[in-house]
Amino acid sequence: ELKVEQNPLFLSMQEGKNYTIYCNYSTTSDRLYWYRQDPGKSLESLFVLLSNGAVKQEGRLMASLDTKARLSTLHITAAVHDLSATYFCAVDNNPLNGSGAGSYQLTFGKGTKLSVIP
Amino acid sequence: DTGVSQNPRHKITKRGQNVTFRCDPISEHNRLYWYRQTLGQGPEFLTYFQNEAQLEKSRLLSDRFSAERPKGSFSTLEIQRTEQGDSAMYLCASRKSDSNTEAFFGQGTRLTVV
After folding, report:
1. What are the beta bridge partners of residue A35?
2. Do B33 and A43 touch (CB under 8 A)?
3. Structural contact between residues B33 and B4, judged by C-beta atoms closer than 8 angstroms
4. Distance of CA A60 to the CA centre of its chain
5. Considering only alpha carbons, which residue of chain A is nearest residue B41?
6. pLDDT score of B69
7. Whose CA is closest to B25, among B60, B51, B56?
8. What tens digit of pLDDT does each residue of B55-107 get?
9. Minimal CA separation from B37 to chain A, in Å
10. What's the number of CA atoms in the CB half-sphere (13 Å) around residue B43?
11. Chain A: residue nearest B90 by CA?
């Protein structure tokens, strides 16, 4: 069974500081997604990481994927209050043989609740 | 708005009643997923459809739950004889069958069983 672990689960940081959220997963996969969720809202797609070594950046957020270590990181640079939200990583349960027959369902981590304090 | 649409947004029901939720996916997306999210947790997979065929169900989906996608477009999720433990946000997502695209989520239906 695929397990996805995020840490930290709670993060309080000051504006202007940098920090990294970690996402570890238990089985081979080369498809990983980061989502943002605001309180009471649905999930907003942030990044799609599709291969080992993939790095994507959008504004103050940068995500990377190391499939050999089964690790993805979400790095926050010079945090601002608007980044306060819960961030989820999700791993695709794709078949190893790449036949395309899998369901590509997502297994999510528990989320990291980020609070950026002025 | 061409995103994933869910109705109703909120539902309060008494224990033992049946409830039904609807999801309208993005029009060209042939895969549709239902997830459940409880407070403080990440979404958990319930079931998914490719077109009208329900291809996989999680063990979380007890026999009180049933999902349909009759014409391969919208989907419904019904919960019979609701229990307090069913209280959660029910999220619908859709994506193309190309595995290299992300799933897009609807706003969710928040169910409260009293």
Report:
1. A45, A88
2. no
3. no
4. 14
5. A110
6. 96
7. B51
8. 888 888 899 999 999 988 999 999 999 999 999 999 999 998 776 778 899 99
9. 10
10. 36
11. A42
Give residue-wise pLDDT tens across range A49-64.
988 889 999 999 999 9
For A33, B7, B19, the CA distances from A88, given in Å and listed in that order, are 8, 24, 28
| SS3 readout for chain B | CCCCEEECCEEEECCCCCEEEEEECCCCCCEEEEEEECCCCCCEEEEEEECCEEEEECCCCCCCEEEECCCCCCEEEEECCCCHHHCEEEEEEEECCCCCCCCEECCCEEEEEC
φ, ψ dihedrals at B56, nearest 5°: -155, 145
Which residues, at least 6 apart from A48, have a Cβ–Cβ distance to it below 8 Å? A31, A33, A56, B100, B101, B102
* The token pair that represents B65 in the structure block: 């739950």
Contact B43 A43 (CB under 8 A): yes
Q: Give the nearest chain A residue to B106 (CA atoms).
A: A42
Two tokens, residue A54 = 């993939």
